[in-house]
Write a structure and sequence with these properties.
The complex is a heterodimer of chains A (about 475) and B (about 450). Chain A is mostly helical and about 475 residues long. In chain A, β2 and β3 form a beta hairpin. Chain A is globular. The termini of chain A are close together. Chain B is α/β, with parallel strands linked by helices and about 450 residues long. Chain B is globular and about 65 Å long. The chains are: A mainly alpha (about 475), B alpha/beta (about 450).
Chain lengths: ~475, ~450
């Protein structure tokens, strides 16, 4: 393990993070709010820390090749470090009292989860609210590169199936691929964000709120500068605009790229995308049927609220326009299950990802098929490509680990005195990077009242979920550290 | 007529022997001295041991005065290069090529229009697969084929003892069936090909060849007590090129297909290629596997492994398990006479298919199709009657038909007519003829003799 190499990368990232604090600082200066000093201090600390790391690791190897072990360690540590330093503006601000809360909020932001410990959001400084949205937007940028280039390269969780189709001709070196694809995908991401801001402004939302919401829609984050989230506006127009952009964010970004390159049927030809869109539609219709008459009296409202909640949860965004805990049981179950399914691989969404669900289903079907035809030879195929057995094993391992971590964390959380529904809901929401859960952490509540240890556990869950399980868990496997 | 054959494999050998027996000048080029020796010892042909894609060799072989080049080596690339060279040196030579790799399929048209201007591309596997498909559709038939682009079909069926047709004289047909009278082209009895005359009687156990319009085929078969049933479940033994192509074709038609292949790597390959087809790893003649997979429920079993003996065994096993409709691939023609006696009658042969396709192109005149039946002992020839040929514009009874040849049908304006002694063939008619092997050469003369003056 070349620690110096890892440290230098983290150092560079921290310097960038420090630079990015200029944005909320400007917001703070514009609104003359109280957070100015906290941003200045955080910026200083972050950049100095970054520079120290860079200087300390000056003798960085000339070799640019990263092996799998170093790659995983770098990704996990980088994300943790950014979460840590990103918490500074919260912690140094008098509105936050404990570092735990600041760290929770920061990790929730960078992992684009959207679970919050802030009880009175509208009372906080504007610049702090902007920072909350902005770190989700930055997190989303990180995730796009992570999920389309870095993790496939490291072979994490069998997701190499969904490698980005980048124009670079070099297949094996990470760097040229990474920078090329990252640029294209970031431009796409930025353009979608800009479009959403324009759409929201068009509906009459103030610029600050439109920007904050767009910044948290595209990364499927879900932070809102309003206490009541999107429900605050009670406008069908805003609901549908946000639904549209949540769906866009939940689709593999390389498909958007293909679409722009002229493959108009890209969405339809991709099995995962078809599954994701189809499932979203079916769940919406079922929920519409379920809440029509029981919660909403008009079919139009039932559809509007059903589509918003389903899309918000399945894309793991976590905006709310209704308190789904007041919905009938079927609707709640739909949302609970959606938390696990998640969006497409290669999107900014979390959860298990549709691709893995499809592969898992096909794998199980093949096992059953084998019992009926013991001597048959069959392959699991997605998009007409055969999925190698080692990738399938990796996917099955992922699904099992996901559920295992889910169950274990729920037990731990319940052990800290949290009730069952809340424990199940909170862990599902954090592991899947969704935001609101069930029980006392539902869409109308927040995470402030949870025990300190519980918050650390959930922050860890967010990281584990965001980094596709393996990347974080592997660091806890003793074998990984043996020389 | 001079013909150069590049490649002395199975197909090359058989074509050479057919053409040599029809007194054509044949040169065979092959790199393999053993294959060449086998040819030169048995056939009256000229041989060259060298690479057929070499321009110097082709010139030495006399490509410039050659009418037809047949490139039938096992290598598609060699065949294509041989054509390309020929196209450069001697553009007037007709080029027939065997291309087996299906990845070339989309380019066939361009090979014909652009360089190397190939006249006919033959893919024995594709043709065999199409034949199997046709055979599957008519369960009672031993042999099936098309004329006039599918408008008219010929079917070979075996008369059972309980067939309503057994014992009827051909001369009684018009009285018995009026307009629906079936058209019988050939009768095969005790391994003898009989060209039917009015006095012949149908007997049970005969293999008869019928010609019928495609729409009336079902009706005609009903007269003989045979029915057409749609296939729902198929089992293919052998996942070679033929098995693979067939499975893909059946998959498209939503027929539930299973394919058994003994080579595990090939199984993996097939499974990657197939969508719904079930790929099974095992030996085709493994009775246990057959029972395990409920083979007796299959509508048809097609055995197309590379090994004739395995295929025969599989078909016997299938019949033993109660599947009557079996199709067997046979490579060696000396097996043909034996097979009927053990009940294996639906036979396909890539080699025979290739030979028919090539012969069709080699034949002079406006021959549209040329189909060998019953182990090449007889041939169906479909041709357009030429104005200048001896066959047109006079009553048939005045035409000196060679012994062993018969005019089976005349297709005019899309309708098929049964010829009588007074019928007259008009120029431009499509005619279907049947001839035993010995009569083919004479028949060809009858069709084309005057054409040579042009």
């Amino acid at each position: 393990m070349r620690w110096q190499f890892i440290a230098s990368i983290i150092g560079i990232l921290l310097v960038f993070l420090g630079f990015s604090m200029i944005a909320p600082l400007l917001v703070s200066l514009h609104y003359h709010d109280l957070a100015r000093n906290s941003f200045l201090q955080s910026m200083g600390i972050t950049m100095v820390a970054g520079l120290i790391l860079i200087i300390l690791s000056k003798k960085r190897g000339s070799e640019n090749y990263i092996n799998q072990k170093e790659g995983m360690t770098t990704v996990a540590l980088a994300w943790a470090a950014i979460g840590l330093f990103g918490a500074l503006p919260f912690y140094l601000n008098p509105e936050f009292t404990s570092f735990t809360d600041a760290f929770f909020e920061s990790v929730s932001g960078f992992t684009t989860t959207g679970s919050s410990v802030m009880t009175n959001i509208e009372g906080a400084s504007k610049s702090l609210l902007f920072w909350r949205s902005f770190i989700q937007w930055l997190g989303g940028m990180g995730i796009i590169v992570l999920s389309l280039a870095i993790l496939p390269f490291l072979g994490v969780g069998g997701i190499q199936l969904y490698k980005a189709e980048v124009p670079s001709p070099v297949p094996d070196k990470l760097t040229p691929r990474l920078s090329d694809s990252a640029k294209i995908l970031w431009v796409l991401y930025a353009v979608f964000t800009l479009l959403e801001i324009i759409f929201l402004l068009g509906g009459g939302m103030p610029l600050f709120e439109a920007t904050c919401h767009a910044f948290t829609t595209l990364p499927t984050g879900g932070f809102s500068p309003k206490n009541a989230s999107i429900a605050h506006y009670n406008s069908a127009y805003f609901d549908y605009v946000i639904v549209l952009f949540m769906v866009i964010a939940g689709i593999n970004f390389s498909l958007h790229y293909q679409m722009l390159r002229g493959k108009t049927l890209a969405f339809w030809e991709d099995t995962e995308c078809r599954f994701f869109l189809g499932l979203t539609l079916v769940l919406t219709l079922v929920m519409t049927w379920d809440i029509y008459g029981t919660v909403y009296t008009s079919l139009k409202d039932a559809f509007r609220f059903a589509s918003f909640q389903v899309v918000s949860i399945i894309t793991t965004t976590g905006f709310a326009t209704a308190d789904y805990e007041k919905f009938p049981g079927l609707s709640q179950i739909i949302l609970f299950v959606s938390m696990f399914i998640g969006a497409s691989a290669g999107s900014t969404g979390g959860g298990m990802k549709c691709a893995r669900i499809i592969a898992g289903y096909k794998y199980c079907y093949r096992e059953l098929f084998k019992i009926v035809h013991p001597r048959s030879i069959s392959h699991v195929k997605i998009n007409n490509t055969v999925i190698p057995d080692e990738v399938l094993r990796s996917i099955m391992g992922f699904l099992a680990l996901y559920m295992g971590i889910y169950i274990l964390s729920s037990i731990l959380l319940a052990g800290m005195g949290v009730d069952m529904m809340t424990a199940f809901g909170a862990v599902a929401a954090c592991l899947g990077n969704i935001g609101p859960g069930f029980g006392t952490v539902g869409p109308a509540d927040n995470f402030a009242h949870l025990p300190v240890m519980g918050k650390w556990l959930l922050a860890w869950c967010m990281l584990v979920g965001r980094l596709e399980i393996y990347t974080v868990i592997i660091l806890f496997v003793p074998e990984f550290w043996k020389k | 007529m001079k013909i150069i054959i590049v490649g002395a494999g199975e197909v090359g050998y058989n074509i050479a022997s057919r053409l040599a027996s029809e007194s054509k000048r044949v040169v065979v080029i092959d790199k393999n001295p053993d294959a060449i020796r086998r040819l030169s010892e048995r056939l009256d042909i000229q041989v060259i041991t060298a690479s057929g894609s070499n321009p110097k060799i082709l010139i030495d072989a006399g490509i410039k005065e050659t009418d037809i080049l047949l490139a039938v080596t096992d290598s598609d690339e060699t065949n294509l290069v041989a054509c390309l060279i020929t196209d450069l040196i001697s553009p007037s030579t007709k080029k027939l090529v065997r291309i087996r790799n299906s990845d070339f399929d989309p380019y066939h048209d361009r090979f014909k229009k652009e360089k190397p201007h190939i006249d006919t591309i033959i893919n024995p596997e594709t043709e065999v697969v199409n034949t199997i498909k046709k055979l599957m559709e008519v369960p009672g038939a031993v042999d099936v084929g098309d004329f006039a682009g599918g408008q008219v079909k010929y079917v070979g069926i075996r008369l059972d003892s309980h067939s309503p047709m057994a014992g009827i004289k051909l001369i009684d047909f018009p009285a018995k069936f009026e307009n629906n009278q079936p058209l019988i082209a050939a009768i095969i009895r005790n391994n003898e090909v009989i060209v039917p005359r009015g006095g012949n009687r149908l007997e049970s156990g005969d293999l008869i060849y019928l010609v019928s319009e495609a729409e009336k085929l079902e009706k005609t078969l009903n007269l003989f007590g045979k029915k057409i049933q749609p296939i729902q479940r198929a089992l293919i033994i052998g996942g070679g090129r033929i098995g693979e192509r067939l499975a893909k074709l059946l998959e498209k038609d939503c027929i539930k297909t299973k394919i058994i292949e003994s080579d595990i790597d090939r199984c993996h390959y097939l499974s990657e290629q197939m969508d719904k087809t079930i790929v099974l790893h095992g030996d085709g003649s493994d009775r246990k596997l057959f029972l395990e997979e409920n083979v007796s429920q299959s509508d048809v079993i097609v055995s197309v492994t590379d090994d004739d003996e395995t295929n025969i065994l599989v078909s016997l096993l299938a019949k033993n398990l109660g599947v009557e409709n079996t199709i067997t691939r046979i490579g060696k023609s000396n097996y043909f006479p034996l097979l009927a006696s053990i009940g294996i009658e639906k036979i396909v042969s890539p080699r025979l298919s290739a030979v028919s396709s090539i012969l069709q192109a080699v034949r002079k005149g406006k021959v549209l199709s040329d189909i060998s039946i019953f182990g090449e002992r007889g041939e169906f020839i479909e041709a357009i009657a030429l104005e200048t040929s001896d066959i047109t514009d006079k009553p048939l009874k005045k035409i000196a038909f060679p012994k062993g040849a018969i005019l089976v049908g005349i297709i005019r304006d899309g309708l098929i007519m049964i010829p009588t002694g007074d019928s007259i063939v008009k120029p431009g008619d499509r005619i279907i003829l049947f001839a035993v092997k010995q009569a083919v050469k004479k028949l060809e003369k009858l069709l084309t003799v005057k054409l040579d003056f042009f």
